[in-house]
Amino acid sequence: MGTATFADGIEQSFDVDRGATVEVDAEGARIAVEGGADEVSVSITRGDDSRGEIEDDYDIDINASSTRVSVRVEKRRKLTNWLGGRSLSIRIDTPERVDLDLHTSGGTVHVEDIEGFVKAHTSGGSMHFDDINGDIDGETSGGSIEVKGTVANAELKTSGGAIRLDDIAGEVRAQTSGGKIELGRVGGDVVATTSGGSIDIESADGSVEAKTSGGGIRIAFTAQPTQGSELRTSGGTITVDLADGVGVDLDAKSSGGRLRASDDLDFRGDATKDSLRGEVNGGGPSLRVRASGGSIVLDKL
User: Which phi and psi angles does 82 have, rounded to 5°?
Assistant: First the structure.
């Protein structure tokens, strides 16, 4: 173990076993974690305008064993970021194969190049995950969430921003109260809900439950789902693209727009001014579609 302490920061390093857990519980700190190192190195710094020793303002507790590194940071008294001072940053370099459990009450979270389970929570900032080979459980009360690269499964929740993901090999649960949801290729089932934006899924191989109160929905089914799907919006158009060989039992209704199934699709059923009901491409799992303020369009991918 190596330790260095200076006025504006603390640095410590530890040897850990493969698959160790790194925990952070901090008040008012930005957290950044990057894999690829030979050991776990913890660096805690603050803004250049701060005065006095860092431990005058914070209680800092760092404990380590071969299987776990724990970082606890608590404010000694009420602090502000006036003029940029007293802002705290926690930087951790780790081996790739670790599990993470990160909590901060007021800062951003950035994690990259990790092979393991990542759990992260912040009460006041955005979250960014890059090249995570494992599951992600992320929640923020005040910012957007972005995931780049392919992950196994993802459960993401924010009260104040957009959610964007690239490729997900497994399942996705995404919920936001104030933004859009954009997903790339999803190999498993999807549950996506937003109260204030659109939902866009570039490629879905499983079932989809998508609901929004303030935007449109666009989804491409690129593989035959094995379970039913439901799409619902109160304020936009729903567009569904079906790849060759993808069949569904359609039940679609719109109260404020047109309904159209492309001639390139094999639709056999009943069509009225405000509903479409029948088999598409020979039928399959149910696809229930409801639009209260827009059109419903089915196209061939």
Answer: -60, 130
Q: Please list, in sequence order, all residues whose beta carbon lies within 8 angstroms of the beta carbon of residue 263, skipping any fewer than 6 positions away.
A: none
Measured distance CA(195)–CA(233) in Å, rounded: 10
**pLDDT for position 84:** 41
Label residue 261 exposed, middle or buried (CB < 10 Å: 0-12, 13-18, 19+).
buried
**Alpha-carbon Rg for the chain in angstroms:** 24
For residues 52 and 61, the answer to whether their CB atoms sit within 8 Å is no
* 221's tokens: 């089914």
Confidence (pLDDT) at 82: 38
Tokens representing 237 are: 């158009």
Helices and strands (DSSP H and E) totals, the chain: 1, 30
CB 37 within 8 A of CB 61: no
Local mean pLDDT, 10-residue blocks, the chain (301 residues): 60 96 94 98 78 74 97 77 61 98 94 98 94 96 91 93 94 93 96 94 97 94 96 94 97 92 95 94 97 93 90
Residue 5's pLDDT is 52
Closest Cα to residue 301, out of 176, 205, 171, 199? 205
Show the tokens assigned to 4. 């260095």
Contact 29, 54 (CB under 8 A): no
Q: Check residue 7 and give its pLDDT.
A: 52
pLDDT of residue 137: 98
Residues 106 and 89 sit within 8 Å (Cβ to Cβ): no
Report residue 57: phi and psi, to 5°. -105, -20
Give the whole-angstrom CA distance, residue 52 versus residue 281: 71
3-state SS class at 140 = strand
Neighbours of 164 (CB within 10 A): 20
CA separation for the pair 250, 169 (Å, rounded): 26
